[in-house]
Design brief:
The protein is mostly helical. The chain is about 70% helix and about 0% strand. Helix 4 packs antiparallel against helix 5. The chain is globular.
Length: about 230
């Protein structure tokens, strides 16, 4: 089945779009996506393929996730997300498969479609295992750090903020812009649900926060509040 899926995806390849995506996802030498290979397929097409091939065995899906082609990995993750949502008994196996392959979940779109919906949702059901997020947050790998913070989006949706605030504190001195953006995004999501919690974090940390992280965090605040935090 996996070979049929690959053939379907490759039949939809668009070389011109692949060039655009390669630039957009920073695949040049020294950039965060260096070496990634694109076919040039739209995300809706990949999601549709994931639905058609949802019954591929997990071992085969893991093989697809090991591909050097970006669309293969995204489609594999879409399959895993779909399977996770529909299956109770398989959830732990999918979660463990995911953590075995964090090095292959190696661009921001791959992390963002999957981390909240697999890792985050699993840890809502199994809160005693949340320490894994702190290990990932302390990793030297950019994508593992992004997985740690994006997984917390599942908690935020449940008005559960403790872990995400602690992880934002861990990542506050990180050097990468993609981590600044992700942390600020999660703080902004908290602010949509509890301004008091967001203000408490900002008042404690705004002097240390990278400018991008702060800008993302305060995006939905009033102009007066934005000016207050940015100018200070």
């Amino acid at each position: 089945m996996i070979e049929n899926l690959k053939k379907e995806l490759e039949a939809k390849a668009n070389p011109e779009k692949a060039k655009i995506l390669s630039r957009f996802f920073k695949t040049g030498k020294g950039e965060y996506g260096h070496g990634d290979v694109f076919l040039g397929i739209s995300v809706p097409m990949q999601r549709a393929a994931a639905k058609r091939y949802h019954s591929i065995p997990l071992k085969e899906t893991e093989k697809l996730l090991s591909s050097n082609i970006h669309e293969h990995r995204l489609t594999a993750l879409a399959i895993l997300v779909n399977r996770f949502r529909k299956s109770g008994p398989e959830r732990k196996e999918i979660y463990r498969l995911y953590l075995r392959n964090t090095k292959r979940i190696n661009n921001w779109d791959l992390v963002d479609i999957s981390a909240p919906n697999i890792v985050g949702e699993y840890l809502i059901e199994n809160p005693a295992e949340r320490k894994v997020l702190y290990r990932l947050a302390e990793s030297k790998n950019l994508w593992e750090k992004r997985i740690s913070i994006l997984s917390c989006l599942a908690f935020i949706r449940k008005n559960d903020f403790d872990d995400v605030l602690k992880i934002c504190e861990i990542l506050i001195n990180d050097s990468h812009d993609l981590i600044h953006k992700a942390s600020g995004w999660m703080l902004r999501e908290i602010g949509k649900r509890s301004l008091e919690t967001l203000y408490e974090f900002l008042d404690k940390h705004y002097k240390q926060m990278p400018r991008t992280m702060l800008r993302y965090a305060i995006e939905k605040l009033s102009d007066e509040k934005k000016a207050f935090y940015m100018n200070r």
